[in-house]
Amino acid sequence: MKRGTLLTLAAGAILLALPTVSRGATTIAGTAHDLSAQAGWGITEICVSCHTPHNAQATQLVPLWNHTSTVASFTPYTSGTLNATVGQPDGTSKACLSCHDGTVAIDAFVGGGGTHTMTGGALLGTDLRNDHPVSFTYDLALATADGGLVTPASASLVVTDIPLFSSKLECASCHNAHNNANGDFLRVSNAGSALCLKCHSK
Ligand code: HEC
Ligand code: HEC
Ligand code: HEC
Ligand code: HEC
User: Looking at ligand 4, which residue's alpha carbon is closest to its atom 43?
Assistant: First the structure.
């Protein structure tokens, strides 16, 4: 994504589309992920756009997943220096992309209208070659092969605040869909590139 050129456009789109977004919120209410804050969308609950207590999707990308899942074919990140084996997005990353790749409506769930599709800077599309790699195993072997990575503490944790999912780095390793206190739903603030330095020894 060309962030420099999209920044102004994206900011404008967010202001127009989401007048109630609060970057300082410590919970999900009032953030971009609170679809009940969308005027005219007819959604009265917060969690329902992603979870349901009963009759959840058979393929649970995340616990009690309620959103229609993307079936797109993605072009994964690649480079000449990458050590990881990166394939199609899975698990929580596929869940994020079920709204953020633009192929499925944001409100495609029981009780949603199914008519609003992602636009602007938050639309990642299906070509992920310009996005940080996701859905690959991040373990001791990878850290050793790369030479510039922090060794993960366990199969479920890199370091404090940075989770892995079945040993894999996913969108939700860097982001927490429920908390926008740091802006961009980041797990930790990226001031001074602190987020990057949780995993990269640079
Ligand atoms: C925009 C989508 C989205 C919304 C809305 C959402 N979640 Fe989640 N939730 C996720 C994703 C993605 C995961 C899996 C990644 C993770 O664990 O962070 C998850 C995981 C969870 C988990 C299991 C992991 C954990 O953090 O304990 C719980 C519990 C949960 N959500 C509860 C809720 C509740 C309660 C609400 C409403 C107040 C809610 N979620 C709203 C996307 C969402
Ligand atoms: C139910 C649909 C849905 C799901 C699932 C979802 N998002 Fe979002 N997300 C949105 C919408 C809607 C916006 C606001 C888009 C806009 O600004 O135009 C958004 C915005 C964002 C933003 C920008 C926030 C800001 O303050 O500008 C980030 C970062 C983000 N999402 C990450 C994620 C990640 C990571 C996941 C998975 C863990 C995820 N989203 C899952 C709907 C979703
Ligand atoms: C390695 C960490 C990392 C991973 C993995 C990651 N992101 Fe992000 N993401 C960030 C950071 C940091 C930002 C803040 C903006 C920036 O620095 O470019 C961001 C910004 C965003 C935005 C806002 C973009 C904008 O211009 O409004 C969205 C949406 C988003 N991420 C979604 C995702 C989704 C979906 C995935 C998984 C496919 C993902 N991210 C994986 C670190 C990550
Ligand atoms: C959750 C841990 C984690 C975080 C946080 C993280 N990265 Fe990564 N990053 C990795 C891993 C693991 C790889 C795969 C390295 C490899 O296979 O050589 C990677 C790959 C990359 C690559 C591609 C390397 C290549 O050889 O093609 C770049 C560039 C990169 N990260 C930059 C960043 C930046 C910039 C940030 C902060 C915005 C960031 N990363 C945050 C773990 C992380």
Answer: 199
